[in-house]
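Quick log. Single chain, no ligands specified.
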Amino acid sequence: MPEQQLTITQVAELISSVSQASQNAQARRTGLLAGEWYSTEDVAALIGVDPSSLRRWRTSTPMQGPPFVRLTSRITVYSVPDVQAWLESRRIVPGEAA
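-> predicted structure:
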């Protein structure tokens, strides 16, 4: 198999993408530890559903709702950035929807 040569630009882009991926992974790790948290009741109030809906979404197959962390069998929390990202992923802008 012939050896492929990379240009300086391609090497720079590769280094940049690896660096960005590393920074993103680090931000996710520290974000969960240093971030704010919502309870099930908090998230339910924010999105206007009953807390039982979130509990049902967590146990449905496939799972639905925002990402969560189950600390114990009775305590589940949601990181603020995860809830925001989940809401943004479900956002529909009229006129832009295809």
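DSSP finds four helices and three strands in the chain.
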